[in-house]
Amino acid sequence: MNAGDRYVFVGYAFLNSLSSSSVLQFGDTIDSVNMKDWVLAIQRRKANFYRDELAYSSYSLFSLPKLVPTSSPPVRFSSCSRNGRIQVGSSRITGASNSSLVRYGNGGGPVAAESRIVNIRHFNAGAPADFRE
User: Has this prediction a pTM greater than 0.85?
Assistant: First the structure.
C-alpha cells in the first residue's frame, strides 16, 4: 500500500438501482469521470415519414447547452478518514440513473455528467377509439 492509498470501509450500503451511464465507486481516484447518456426511443405502429425523427439533430433538446447546477442539494454528511481509511457508517440510495455518480472516497479530476432523453410512443392498436388514427 502506497502512502496515498486508502481503504474504504462501509458499514452498510444499499443501492436499489444503478443504470444508464452511472458509476458506483469505492475509494479515492485521480481520474476524471465523464458520463454521457443520450437516449432516443421511438415506438410506433407505423412509420412517420414527415421528418427524420431518428436523428438527434431533429430535436432541439440535443443541441441546447449543458445545464450546470447553481447550488448543491442539501445532504447530511460527516467525514472520518483516519489512518489511511475512509469510514462510512451507512448509506441508503433508492436509485442512481442516467449519468449519476455515487462515490465513497475523494475524487480527482473533473466530473461531467449529461443525460438527454426523448421517448415517443404511439400504440394505436388496441387503444381506445378516441386515441386511434
Answer: no
